[in-house]
Design brief:
By secondary structure, the chain is an all-beta fold. The protein contains no helices and eight strands. The two termini are 14 Å apart. Pfam families: Avidin_like (PF26421).
């Protein structure tokens, strides 16, 4: 993760995501920064990825919600996910950007 409107991203220990896909179904896990461990599952249609997620917070507690991401090619050729997401119980739309690690 390189940026998020929901929290400051620690550049030395950002949240890192691993994605897998088969037949348009996506799933994976993530950890780092404010997240102890998280899981997601969803679908990809063209350049749109829609997922539901849940994670445990390092500060205690948990969070979950839904997101939609656009898959884009960055200027450096790496893929980027520009994600709009909400937390359960909060209708505020947040935006994050994740960049492929080469």
């Amino acid at each position: 993760m390189v940026s998020s409107t929901a929290s400051d991203v620690d550049p030395d220990s950002p949240t890192e995501f691993q994605y897998w896909e088969a037949d348009g179904v996506v799933w994976g896990h993530y950890s780092g920064d404010t997240v102890t461990h998280g899981r997601f599952v969803g679908t990809r249609d063209g350049d749109l990825v829609s997922i539901s997620y849940a994670h445990a917070l390092k500060a205690g507690g948990k969070a979950g919600g839904h997101s939609s991401s656009r898959v884009e090619a960055g200027d450096d050729g790496r893929l980027r996910l520009v994600e709009e997401f909400t937390f359960e119980g909060d209708d505020t739309v947040h935006v994050s950007v994740c960049a492929e690690v080469s």
